[in-house]
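--- STAGE predict ---
source: upstream dedup step, 1 unique chain passed
mode: sequence only
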Amino acid sequence: ELPLGSTPIDFAYRIHTEVGHRCVGARVNGRLVPLDYKLNNGDIVEIITSKHLKGPSADWLRFVRTSHARSRIKRYLKIQTLEENAQRGREMLLQAATKRGIPEEHALDESKLATVMRIFHCQTVEQLLAAIGYGDVSPEAVLMRIFPVPLQPEKPTAPRRHKLRVQGRLSMGIALKDGGDISIPIRLSRCCRPIPGDPIIGYVTRGRGLTVHRRDCRNVHHLMGHEPNRFMELEWQLSAEGTYQAELMVEALDRVGLLSDIAGAISEQGVNIASCNVETSSRLRTARVHLVIDITGPEMLQRVIDSLRQISDVTSVVRVVR
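--- STAGE serialize ---
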């Protein structure tokens, strides 16, 4: 028996330590799934192993559920050389820093790491990095010690509400909810990339006019608490036309030809790819493909998503809203 939320890795280590160490993939109920897939009662699990695999990844410690699997992974990682673990720790620390918007030169600054290394019972910066590498120390915990308060953007001075008057017509197909028109410069936010049909709200920026966000954008939540007078209620007009950008995250089992299949599926829908970034994990045997595509509306976006979900080995396709 395995606890709720257990993964194929937990199952593999329950069979045998060597099966866990050499696990490269899994099939659940006959379908290939990523190694962090959460198992359900009654699932039929097949573990795929490789004789050539070097061993488990420290990334597995982020999602395994059983103490048995966790202890076996840590034991293996600790016997690796200090240098290998330190390099792995640098990569994990940098990845965590990027997610928090912390520049690389700050996150890997040895003078900053030296100020917190003893908190984590390490005598040197290299030992601290190695501890991150084999999973004894969380990279997020280190960053929280060094940068306890997230960097905040400069707060623009809020204008008095009665001075904000907008007139004219907006060709983008966005209008004030109270029936007024907009003539000040307007742009769609790049953080949440709203498209027609999304609930929207406008934020008046200093010197850049009106920025349109999705209402559930995390930046809106932050700014609303500090500068509510800078927000304007907006809505899409029925005649909204144009090209909009949407972000997608595609998760799949890594294989030869995956990116070609994804590009082909999007091209078949007559959609342009504005940007594409691929992250692969050789140990997890997975790929994450981050896409920005040009679309004309929600119907086109849904057709692209449906098409991508039909690709072999693709496990997830979601629209990214930051």
